[in-house]
Amino acid sequence: MLEEEEGVLLDASWRRLAGDSPEARAVGRELLLRWSEPHRRYHTLTHLWATLRAVDVLAHEAASPDLVRYAVWFHDAVYETEPGLDEDRSAVLARELLPMTGMAPERTEEVARLVLVTKEHAPGPDDPDGQVLSDADLSVLAGSPDEYLAYTAAVRAEYRRVSDADFRAGRSRVLNALLRAPGLFRTEFGRVHWEPRARSNMLAELDRLAAGAPADLP
């Protein structure tokens, strides 16, 4: 999908979610600008749109689907390739901007909490909204082999300043940590429909990393 088309669809999606007040439109414009920053290769409008669509698939398992959608908009709104810090800053941004849309303080704080769930993707068993957000964010892992290769190439491009050896080591640690968990996905839909393909994709990537496959930097 062309970036311009994605921007139009996302603008409409934001207005359905947040309303059409001048303040809500201003927040939406800022978010779209952030997601369009030139240094991004994976955490782009395409990722935002795909994650929102994944939430639509999982919405029946959420307690508050719209709060999950707000969290999707903010979860990588700050992206400077600093894992942990990016999520913290994105949560702060949610606390700063959402009151401008008229959102109540307790709902704003819940969105910020959900954003922080994406630091570890380890929501608790009594956190259905966190489970839906985490699974939607990780749904890219369950793409077709070609889609997964495009995803890994985009992630590598975001870390182009890191040497191949250091990237392979760091990426392998991330993949192994995810694979050691009892399950990648916490929702019923994710476990049934996404888990097997995601594990297959990740194991294949680990094999490529171990073999020292050259990085594909678009």
TrEMBL record:
Q: Which GO terms describe its molecular function?
A: hydrolase activity
* InterPro entries attached to this UniProt entry: HD_phosphohydro
- UniProt entry keywords in alphabetical sequence: Hydrolase
Would you tell me the protein name for this molecule? Predicted metal-dependent phosphohydrolase, HD superfamily
Question: Which organism was this protein described from?
Answer: Nocardiopsis flavescens
**The organism's lineage?**
Bacteria, Bacillati, Actinomycetota, Actinomycetes, Streptosporangiales
